[in-house]
């Protein structure tokens, strides 16, 4: 277990920004440690996970801890690499916010303006076209994915389908897809929409999406170990996990991208939490703006889910689930609290349980 307090001074090293941290102790922190240990230990036992890691940021103080042992008997630490899965979408949302800030894109303009010479007449319904707002809030009407179906997922064929899928095939499928709902009217979670957002961002900046993540986020947040694994190199360092039947599962990140392909460490995710909570870069604040939904209940920002947006309890959050990993990320801008939890298991209930643990932790901090 490690506690830190953030200094006001920022140290610039090789163009990257790192927070200088010093140790801090107190009874409330000991209570929090015991509480977190009990909650995570219970989760590991119930979900039969091997390991879990957690990072908490609260008003400049940082708590990091790790639980369990990997198959080789090694305990996880701040440098243990995990799949982030769909938490990746919050990074995509932040790059999108930067593009809006840079006036590279119009949030409410027709996305077909960014799709080259093809007319894509199919990407409208009853005269209503798809916008980047719709893509960022999963209301575009695009499917969960073009690469695979729910039947493929049930048969365990996701990797087989993704590994054979290309950018060219994506746009071929996009050109033939028929919208069944009016853009902006219905929520339908869409990896395809997230990928399309990234392709548009690559086009308007004329740079690979990986480079945009590096330039617009990592170079500012100080994350050293957040990256895509599409080259299939260094995969031995990424933690694998198990499914609900206890079966060892392969990594999904090498076959995923802007919708769920990032891997990271507890240390880097701590930097990401700090950046989301303390950065004065305008795109960060913009990425938190409510784009759709109910400001007093559930809504959506730039690929963030939101809850009680117009209150001091304002929460932005996202979960992640790969074939063998579950993760949870939540920030409370008004409370200056952030929570990241990850475990190497993927079951029907694992993401929801991490959500519950995070909520309890925030309540516990409020009592301290």
UniProtKB/TrEMBL annotation:
Ranges of residues in domain Beta-lactamase-related: 40-349
SUPFAM superfamilies cross-referenced by the UniProt entry: beta-lactamase/transpeptidase-like (SSF56601)
Lineage: superkingdom: Bacteria
Family recorded in the similarity comment: Belongs to the beta-lactamase family.
UniProt name for this protein: D-alanyl-D-alanine-carboxypeptidase/ endopeptidase AmpH
